[in-house]
Amino acid sequence: MEIGHTSFMAMMALIGAVIIIAALLSGLIERSGLPQVAAFLALGAILGPAGLDLFDVRLDSFLLQIVATLSLILVLFTDAVSLNLKEVRRHLSLAMLVLGPGTLLSAALIALVGWRLLDLSPAAAAILGAALASTDPVLLRGALKGERLPASVRQALRLESGLNDAVLLPVVLIGMTFLENGSLGASDWSRFGLSLFLLGPGAGAAVGFMAVSALVMMRNRFGVRRDYESFYSLGVVFAAYAGAEAVHGSGFLAAFAAGMTIAALDVELCDCFLEYGETTAEMTLLFTFILFGTSLIWSGLSILNGKTLAFSVLVILIRPVAFLASLAGFRLDWKERFLIAWLGPRGLSSLLLILLPVFAGLSGSDQLFSLTCAVVLLSIVLHGGSLMWLGKQVRASHAPQSPVDLPPAPLPSARLAESAGEGLISVEEMRRVQQTGAPVVVLDARTDRSFEGNNENAEGAIRFLPDRAAGQQATILGFSKEAWLIPFCACPNDETAVRVAEELRQAGWPRARALEGGWEAWKKSGLPTVERK
Question: How far apart are CA 348 and CA 381, in angstroms?
């Protein structure tokens, strides 16, 4: 399908608007707690037929198909590659409860309601149930990285958001096969099973293994520039998708398998490898939300009647029932169980999954899409409002942290670390600074993957999110401009900590220095650690 000059310019303008607005409003949206997706749906409505009439995206739009496909493969890949398999194994029983009785029971109950209440065919109901059991990665991302939720709740939701799409996607694909063909013979099922469960994941695993092995080999022998390693992840996911489609496998499952393979290899990657992929995925998701917001998602309002409204409300309520039942015997208090059960926002993942039968041209798929839109709009209001309220509660109860006292280590020299090169400070120099009585604040700037993969913390260290604006975090935490802010990380060459320290110096904390050797240096020097519960 050819794209004309006007369409191309409009596309470039929209992409530019997404990036510029996302960057400019990121801090404001984070402070307000407003769901990011709501802001971009509103922007879509302004640009659509009801507003400036600059865009009118329809279900048969080639642009929508391209962007939705990119969004889904990036979501699947980043969900998988961000998984900490040590954490999954350590909490295997929780993961099994969340994904098995929790996610699959939710999908089955939603399908049952769709079948009985809306008179959908069993195959269509199964597709709808699987799509609406998927949770939204954009709405949850801020909550999972911040301090709004207890650690056990973040852990359960992180496991679910990382794995549930891989569980639900096969259900959608199998339902599509039934919806299209009615029934299949044994040989047809064999070919379908081979394509779905072997060729796709196999191709993705092979690409992931070869890609990360090649990266490690070249980095060890010749070095790899950080800026190139940052977008290496995009090459991996696109190659995995294309490789699987070339052998008639599922490119979507290949994207997930590639990410899972990289996670399983447990290679220490530059934090930029994950961050760039996640940022690109988020930009693509927000771009997709604008496309939906122009007109498509509002189709959910046009179908509202007694039955569809009842269905939408029941879908929101089914998840808490399914999850509370699934987690009844697990060692969580009632508040933690309730938060896990309630916080299952429906959003872009649901819309992307339900678009698969739409793009395949299956009968009745337009109705399934409109039903999904109705549930997503209701979920954004209810779950987005819940997350806003939680954010306000955390900010109201948050008190500035006090500087940490390091154990004194008498040394012959009291030289301060002002001369530390490259923005680094050694453990010994940090001790000397502490001996002078100057305030020292140690910041744990490990990536989420490194932090969650180790249940030990540096005693007295303050968790400092490396993907958030460093100056803004330091201001919120109330750090004195005279304090020594010392971030540490666990990545090669202290890259993350050096970057965070540089951002802090630029933001007005001149004594910010990255701890040389990072987390390993802290432990080897005998500085105290505490076990995180």
Answer: 14
Supply φ then ψ for residue 487, to 5 degrees.
-80, 150
Tell whether the model's pLDDT for residue 396 goes beyond 60: no
Domain co-membership, 201 together with 256:
yes
CA nearest neighbour of 298 among 68, 75, 57, 65: 57
Report d(CA 127, CA 352) in Å as an integer: 12
Using the 8-state DSSP alphabet, how is residue 492 labeled?
G
Establish if 397 belongs to a structural domain.
Answer: no
> Given its phi and psi angles, is residue 437 left (phi above 0), alpha (psi -120 to 50 degrees) or beta?
left
- Residues 447-485 have pLDDT tens digits of 877 777 677 889 889 999 887 888 888 988 889 999 999
Residues 10 and 55: beta-carbon distance below 8 Å: yes
- Same domain as 72, residue 142: yes
Q: Are 498 and 516 in contact (CB under 8 A)?
A: no
Across the chain, what does the average pLDDT equal? 83
Please name the residue that has the structure tokens 């092979």. Answer: 206
Phi, psi of 484 (to 5 degrees): -85, 110
Q: Minimum mean pLDDT among 26-30, 48-52, 87-91, 307-311: which range? A: 26-30
Instruction: Give the burial string for 488-507 (b: 16+ CB within 10 Å, else e).
Output: bbbbeebbbbbbbbebbbeb
Cα 320 from chain centre? 22
Mark residue 508 as left, alpha or beta (left: phi above 0; alpha: psi -120 to 50; beta: remaining): left
Tell me the DSSP string of 171-203.
HHHHHHHHHHHS---HHHHHHHHHIIIIIHHHH
d(CA 260, CA 257): 5
Contact 73, 241 (CB under 8 A): yes
Domain that holds residue 240: 5-392
| pLDDT in the model for residue 411 | 38
Binning the chain into helix, strand and coil, the percentages to the nearest 5 are 70, 5, 25
Contact status, residue 399 vs residue 156, Cβ threshold 8 Å: no
| 8 Å CB contact between 237 and 278 | no
- Both structure tokens of 336: 């933690």
* Domain match, 247 and 105 both: yes
Mapped onto helix, strand or coil, the DSSP state of residue 164 is helix
For residues 375 and 398, what is the distance between their CA atoms, to the nearest angstrom?
Answer: 34
DSSP code per residue over 503-520: HHHHTT-TT--EETTHHH
Q: Give the end of a domain, one of 358, 392, 426.
A: 392
Contacts of 174 (CB under 8 A, 6+ apart): 126, 196
Q: At 461, which amino acid appears?
A: A
Q: Where are the beta strands (DSSP E) in 413-519?
A: 424-425, 440-444, 456-458, 462-463, 484-488, 514-515
pTM value?
Answer: 0.76
Give, in order, the Cα–Cα distances in Å from 266 to each of 87, 167, 184. Answer: 12, 22, 40
User: Looking at the 3D structure of the chain, how many domains does it have?
Assistant: 2
